[in-house]
Amino acid sequence: MAQRATLFQGARVGVNRRHWLPKTKLDRISMDRDAVPQPIKLALRQEAGFGCCFCGNPIFQYHHVVPYSKTPEHIEQDMMVVCPNHHHEITVGGITEERQRHAKANPINIKRGYVDGLLRVTDPAIAIRAGTVDFVGPGFKLLVDDKPLLGIARGENGRLSISLELYDSIGNLLLAVGDNEWISGDPLPWDIEFGVRRLKIRRRSGEVVLKLDARHSPATLYGDLWFANQHFSLRERGLFFDGVARGVGIVEVGLVGGRLHADSRAGQFRIEPDPAIGNTMIFSWPYREQRLKKCFKALAQLEAEAASVAVTSAV
């Protein structure tokens, strides 16, 4: 398994790790269970430093140390956060209960000082540069027919959470992640490479399907997203779309409180406000740093207006 030392702000933080995710029946089993209550999920994430207890991977699942088939309950003391690779290793008997409990009691992120996980940013709000387009504000999403293909949220203390559905060009679901939880029907072989403030998801063939780098402001995002013959392509030179509209390219703009929506039923490709804010602003400005500052200022204005409307409506 390839490993590389990583340095961040002058401190040695360990190694990057790549995990091949084998085919398992984990999710088919989990579909027969009652959902894990949200308070227990939050407690487990906090306990683990928002990553796999063994390796720190920010993409994870909730594992029952005491098999759910033996004790069909969600007991916090008998559960832990693990990545899909370590979950599989546990399932096939490769990690003893003793080792599991030791990892639960000594999560690698906590030991290294990353109590808020590896995907943490310090910007005052979500700022994602997809290609050369700055998406600023909560709920950054690309949608097709009301289905969100990509969402990035910023939680308490700047933690980033990713929601993602990846399809191939003919509509087959490849993987699904919700708030950093791996929830796909069958974890196919994927290579997840991660380090401090960065995440890369590859196909086994080596093709990069999503790359997030939050080591600088704003975080950058590249990849390809498909659904219903609609294709978003996030590249270093811009954001491109092909589907209901052909050959669309969006470059060097800031989109505040908005999202891109391809509606194949109506034959429309549009920019629309995120429902949480209700309005959106677009900035075309050649200097990226200045543009980002303008976007943050505009977001504060939009959020204040939305809060005022909410108060007025409640009266």
> Would you count the extended β strands for me?
22
Percent of residues in helices = 10-25%
Question: Which structural category do the helix and sheet elements fall into?
Answer: alpha+beta
Query: What is the 3D form?
Result: globular
What does this structure look like?
With 315 residues, the protein is α+β, with helices and mostly antiparallel strands. It has two domains: 16-111, no CATH class; 127-308, no CATH class. 20% of the residues lie in helices and 39% in strands. The chain contains six helices and 22 strands. It has helices spanning 26-30, 38-48, 84-91, 97-105, 108-111, 288-314, and strands spanning 3-8, 11-20, 61-64, 79-82, 127-130, 133-136, 140-144, 147-154, 160-167, 173-178, 181-182, 190-195, 198-203, 208-213, 219-227, 230-235, 238-242, 248-250, 253-256, 258-263, 268-273, 281-284. The strands form three sheets. Strands 1, 2, 5, 6, 12, 13, 14, 15, 16, 17, 18, 19 and 22 form a 13-stranded mixed sheet that branches. It is globular, with a radius of gyration of 20 Å. Mean pLDDT is 85; it is low at 1-32.
Task: Give a quick set of tags describing it.
alpha+beta, 20% helix, 13-stranded mixed beta sheet, 6 helices, 2 domains, disordered N terminus, 7-stranded mixed beta sheet, 315 residues
Short description:
The chain folds into two domains: 96 residues, no CATH class; 182 residues, no CATH class.
Topology:
Blueprint (H helix, E strand, L loop, with lengths): L2 E6 L2 E10 L5 H5 L7 H11 L12 E4 L14 E4 L1 H8 L5 H9 L2 H4 L15 E4 L2 E4 L3 E5 L2 E8 L5 E8 L5 E6 L2 E2 L7 E6 L2 E6 L4 E6 L5 E9 L2 E6 L2 E5 L5 E3 L2 E4 L1 E6 L4 E6 L7 E4 L3 H27 L1
Parallel strand pairs: 5-15, 6-19, 7-20
Antiparallel strand pairs: 1-2, 2-12, 3-4, 5-6, 7-8, 8-9, 9-10, 10-11, 12-13, 13-14, 14-15, 15-16, 16-17, 17-18, 19-22, 20-21
